[in-house]
Amino acid sequence: MTTYAVAHILHLLCAISFIGVVFFEVLLLEGLRRPLGEEAMATFEAALINRARRIMPWVVGTLFASGLGLAWFHRGALLSGTPMGVLLWVKLALAFSVLGHFIFALKTASDGCMNSRLFKRLHVSVGLHMLGIVLLAKGMFYVSW
Question: How far is it, in rounded angstroms, from Cα 126 to Cα 121?
Answer without folding.
Answer: 9
